[in-house]
Specification:
Blueprint: H1 3-16, H2 20-37, H3 40-56, H4 60-77, H5 80-96, H6 100-116, H7 122-138, H8 142-158, H9 162-175
Helix pairs in contact: 1-2, 1-3, 2-3, 3-4, 4-5, 5-6, 6-7, 7-8, 8-9
Amino acid sequence: MSDAVTLMTNADHARREGRSAEAHRDFVAAVGLSRGNGDRRELIRALKGLGQIERDLGRPDAARPLYEEAALLSRAERDGLLLAHTVRHLGDVYRAIGHPELAEPCYHEALAIYRADATTPPLDLANAIRPLAILEEADGRIAEAARLWTEARDLYAAVAVAEGVAECSARLAALGA
């Protein structure tokens, strides 16, 4: 295991335990090591991890360039599921900083990739549908939002994610669907 991977494993553990400063430090170091060793997949993981910590700390503006770089590198890897996951999170960052017009194409791209790959885990698909449903609802496209919320609810139910089912059901009820 490389030093960068060890740092990312430690950072993930620190994040789960609520030690954000330690996780941030380790992801920063992992980004540096990954840049130095030329391992693109490690760098993608490190950038996304650091971006997630920035989001956790309420700094989506700081997360933006990290996810943008990770998305660019993911495209070069030609790994559809990696790209879909990365682009979905980039969409979440754009939405968090008030740019739904940038988020929407990210969600559509992620969904297209996920739908085209039979190995897509249902939870990943549900997690990609959910933010698009939020945007559709916010834009007043109620029928499309209801369709997406229903699909996401069914996927969350299939993998027994009660919180996801509850959120989708509440959104559908609020829409009158």
